[in-house]
Amino acid sequence: MTKRAQNNQLTGKYEPVIGLEVHCQLKTRTKLFCSCPQSFAQTPNSNVCPVCSGAPGVLPVLNKKAVDYAIKMALAVGAKINPESVFARKQYFYPDLPKGYQITQFDKPYCEGGGVRLAGGKYIPLTRIHLEEDAGKSVHSAEGTFVDLNRAGIPLIEIVSEPSISSPQEASEYLKKLRAIVRYLGICDGNLEEGSFRCDANVSLKPKGSKKLGARCEIKNLNSFRNIEKSLVYEIYRQADLLDAGQRVAVQTRLWDPALSRTKAMRDKEESEDYRYFPEPDLPRLFLEKERVSSIDASLPELPDAKGERFLKDYLINYEESQILTSDRDLASFFETLVAKRSESLPIPLIARWVCGEYLREMRADEAWTLKNLRVPGDKFLLLLECVAQQKISQRAGKKVFKLMVAEGGDPLDLIRREKLEQVSDKSIIKKACEEILHKSKAQVDEYLSGKEKVFAYFVGQVLRQTGGNFNPQSLNEVLKELLQEKKKQ
Amino acid sequence: MEVSSSLVEKIANRVQLQVSSELLSTYTKQLRKMLDYVDKIDELDEGSCNDFFSLVSCSAEREDAPVLYDGGVIVQQAPQRKGQAFQVPQVVD
Amino acid sequence: MTNSLGERLWTGEEIVSGVKEDRSFLDQVLNFYCSKIKKEGPEINCFTFFSESALAQQQSVLRQRIEAKEDLPLAGLPVSVKDNIAVEGMPLTCASKILENYYPSYSATAVERLVKAGAIIIGKTNLDEFAMGSSSEYSYFGPVKNPRDKRKVSGGSSGGSAASVAGGFCPVALGSDTGGSVRQPASFCGVLGLKPSYGRVSRYGLTAFGSSLDQIGVFANNSRDLSLILNAVSGQDKKDSTSSALPPFSAEKHESLQPEKLKVGILQDFLKPASADVIESFAKAEEFFKNQGAQVQDVFFPELQYSVPAYYIIATAEASSNLSRYDGARYGFRSKGRLNSLGEMYKQSRSQGFGEEVTRRIILGAFVLSEGYSDKYYQKATKVRKLLLSGINKLFDKYDILLSPTTPTTAFDLGSHGQDPVSMYSSDVCTVLANLTGVPSLSVPCGVSEKTKMPVGLQIIANRNQEQKLMSVSSFFQQGFC
User: Fold this and answer.
1) Domain limits at C169?
2) Residues A59, C239 contacting (CB under 8 angstroms)
3) Which of C26, C114, C348, C422 could form a disulfide with C76 if both were Cys (CB 3.0 to 4.6 A apart)?
């Protein structure tokens, strides 16, 4: 079943109501409340100190850069920044939580509201964003649980959306946009698989047209875009099936099992933990002055939505392309470098089409190829595109050359020569070949002249086969049409 | 203030304290007494002020500069460990 | 000068100037204290850690530093430190089984500053477990006895520190005060005890009990020594976000008091719960100020009756949270024997590791933060706190200092509150106000009770950051009052 069909089926009787909570690890040099470095550590517990390991008598001290990054995010989504906010303790016992509480923000987060516009145009409002510290990692085995506190204390922002997302596809778009924003801002890697960008979903169904919300389930362990969509689809169907059977959906926390492709109940949310929140006495209120906020505002880069609009306007590309090209800041920058370096005869939409098509496709297939480490450098790519634009080679030949450039490197002009892919546009040569074919295909000519227009493709195919396919298709079509027209007159 | 020993037990559980039934009844009595004592606060009509109370008047933030610490020293203090990781009995959900 | 036992011992200042003049004086001083501690210390039980080798090591390092002509304003001064304050190389037990063999890899900032100035940490002192108590009887290592009368308690929770100074084992000591834990034992033992303004001294390295109430405090036999220590330890610390950015206290700026200009408020609400003998002694102190020409007035502050309940709600709430980290997972005591699950490890380690009073307070603290009760208790206590703060600010608009007895009674007998722990909370009635409002407060010896023959303490309270005033008033009082 196609995604679209699935979506249509789902919204038949019930409307999915989805809210997403995204945790982003902030790319600061140190942790949120201590000066331990945030680095890729192979050894467990190598980036720890008495503060982040919960020793007696230690105290948290807030990381200025983490606050700056948090402010950037608030500005980027148009949230309202609270001039005063409060840190709080969220208390529970778990081995990867060394103090027995997490320092987070509860009643008064540093910003509220704002929103994100999806590629399709829908606006998803946010409830709030707040700062908090990450927990360590626990590895469970039959022997016991092993705890590594390297991750404990890393700064996070938790972005909570309103439950305005209505389908798994919208959820995916929302996350992609959010990820693009944090990467544009340079505050987070946005890597789902590695855990710097984590998502939990709250899903419920309501009868179509009704305002009454259904029971909500929280879905955890969503570590790829594919898993997010799959799990949401599964969960929506699961809840729909229960409701159809007249049963009640229990409020639960459920884990997505990627191996079995299903969600499984973790614990009954009804008997939820009491976190005994209270304001963190070891930290003063967080005062965010206007000057600080406006100075950060002035330093924000052009964000995806603004860049997308500009691309549409200035480059005359289509909407889908503008979304793809601005989905990643480095990609947008690469594209604009190509645009700046191109020759006048190379139309920008062609560049856009090829970047969104061939270039990205090949790049995504190779992990080692990144925008910082180009396998096919920009200037060589431009050369190839120029050949296509000037019709020196056909589109198809162009794609072939590009694949060779990916595999072997090398210069496009050399490869064109080597593979004999120059496109023939000289009509006199084409005419000669066509006349030969038409001469051999008297029966088909008669068929064509009697009205069977489809036979035209046969002539094209024959010519291309005979000559090795290097004729400029447009010229070929023109020549054939002329010749056949003459035959008609005869 | 009505306080039952099952409530006291529930709370003790939440903070990972195991209380023998004998001590539980003692604690319940004592908790009732403590609460009667602090219930005095109810007499006060303190008006409506909802802000966070703090004796500290200004923000304190630090520069994002790493300071290295020997994590090994910390792991050495663990009652049980495996390599450089802390080891605890398995979580039974 | 003579201490409260009538012994002629050195003041801290005398030791420092003596060592400055003659390096060998250091050996004489340390030898004296060492042998006194070994001889009389065990009976008082005021030390949880005392090691001659640790002492010798410090001595040798200090000698090198003196040789290198380092600037050492406190060179040779022996200081004892309450065992809930971290000193690298010495255990940090908090008088609890759960930290029985814990050695911190860092020192508290206050300790670092003392050591930097040349002080010698003579040992760690005994306390109520995790600073929760008013008698130093709730210690895993047994109770601390009052040097004045060994049948009686030394007060708490910093009883060991108070007794170490009162017993002549060292001239000065560090303690901690959350609801009176420095001032009350000072009063019981007949020494001076200072709780600075909140934020005056860094809390980094002080095992947290009530984070918004805790302060490291100082014991001494005279206010000059208190000043010396406060001077060294106070001042903003980057590691403590609640430490104040105000200029640190300076021992140099010694104001001499002009009594006629002094406006004194007598906190009548603290006289009500006091026993007759304490009131009698206090009256003599009041008389002294009047005779010296100060303007003395009675003050009524009815909201004070809510201060102890508010204190217990806030302190236990914060404590229950601060003590969650003691779970047997990363350090400290983990229950022996077979542990089949994480939950078992937590419950058994904590239940076996914590004493009764700590357990009681953790449960109460968790209760007042629980969903459904938090508004009634924790939120309300916070509001009471605001009221008290605004009330006391108004008082300091009119008065320079406020006076009261430090405690309603003199030191009680060991074991006398065993059956009714809640009754012990009322001994904090005079002291919690200063913690709730963050103002500095000092207890200075005020004679002895006619009835019990035990020391009585006079509590002097000043406005936030006015420790200077406390020093000059207490100095004036100590010199003039007999």
Assistant:
1) 12-258
2) yes
3) C26
State the catalytic residue, choosing from C4, C80, C82, C443. C82
**CATH number of the domain residue C153 falls in:** 3.90.1300.10
pLDDT digits (tens, 9 = 90+) for C31-50: 999 999 999 999 999 999 99
Structure tokens at B32: 């009732």
Cα dihedral value A340, A346, A352, A356, nearest 10: -110
Chains in contact with A, counting 3 or more C-beta pairs less than 8 Å apart as contact: B, C
Q: Choosing among C236, C325, C341, C375, which should be mutated to test the A contact, i.e. which has the most A CBs within 10 A?
A: C325
Do the bridges between strand C120-125 and strand C78-82 make them parallel or antiparallel, or are there none, so unpaired?
Answer: parallel
Which of C475, C405, C401 is closest to C439 using CA atoms?
Answer: C401
**Does some domain include residue C341?**
no
Catalytic residue (choose from C134, C157, C307, C475): C157
The enclosing H or E element of C457 equals strand C455-461
Asked whether C196 and C234 are in contact (CB, 8 A), the reply is yes
The tokens 């979580």 sit on which residue?
Answer: B91
CB contact under 8 A, B58 and A287: yes
In angstroms, rounded to a whole number, what is the distance separating the alpha carbons of residues A443 and A449? Answer: 10
Architecture in CATH for domain A427-489: Orthogonal Bundle (1.10)
Residue C212 catalytic? no
CA distance A432 to A153: 76
Q: What is the pLDDT of residue A270?
A: 45
List residues bridging with A21 in a β-sheet: A160, A200
Kindly state whether residue C242 falls inside one of the protein's structural domains.
yes
Q: How many domains does chain C have?
A: 1
Helices A442-449/A473-489 angle, 10° precision = 80
B89/C102 CB distance under 8 A: no
DSSP output for C270-312 = GTTTS-HHHHHHHHHHHHHHHHTT-EEEEE--GGGGGHHHHHH
Q: Give how far C241 is from chain A: nearest CA, Å.
A: 6
Chains that touch B (3 or more CB pairs under 8 A): A, C
pLDDT band for position C343 (50/70/90)? very high
Q: Helix, strand, coil % (nearest 5) of chain C?
A: 45, 15, 40
Q: Which residues of A touch C327 (CB under 8 A)?
A: 93, 100
The H-or-E segment that residue A157 falls in is strand A155-161
- Is A266 touching B (CB cutoff 8 A)? yes
pLDDT-derived band of residue A78, with 50, 70 and 90 as boundaries?
A: very high
User: How far is C134 from C131, CA to CA, in rounded Å?
Assistant: 9
Q: Does B58 touch chain A (CB under 8 A)?
A: yes
Rounded to an integer, the average pLDDT of A385-400 is: 88
Please list every residue in chain C whose beta carbon sits closer than 8 Å to the beta carbon of residue B86: 329-330
Helices (H), A409-450: 412-419, 427-440, 442-449
Nearest-CA distance from B64 to chain C in Å? 13
In the numeric block, the tokens 């309270």 are attached to C461
B11 vs C contacts (CB less than 8 Å): 363, 366-367, 370
* Tokens at A321, concatenated: 């392309």
When pLDDT is averaged across residues B47-64 and rounded to a whole number, the result is 78
Whether the CB of C363 is below 8 Å from some CB of chain A: the reply is no
Q: Is residue C391 in some structural domain?
A: no
Chain B CB within 8 Å of residue C419 CB = no
Q: Give residue-wise pLDDT tens across range C88-143.
A: 999 999 999 999 999 999 999 999 999 999 999 999 999 999 999 999 999 999 99
Q: Which two three-digit tokens encode residue C318? A: 């914060």
Q: Nearest to residue C229, comparing CAs of C81, C439, C431? A: C81
- Option in B42, B49, B55 nearest C212 (CB): B55
Residues of each domain in chain A carrying CATH 1.10.10.410:
427-489
C82 is catalytic: yes
Indicate if C223 belongs to the active site: no
In 3-state terms, what secondary structure has residue A299?
Answer: coil
CA distance A402 to A416: 10
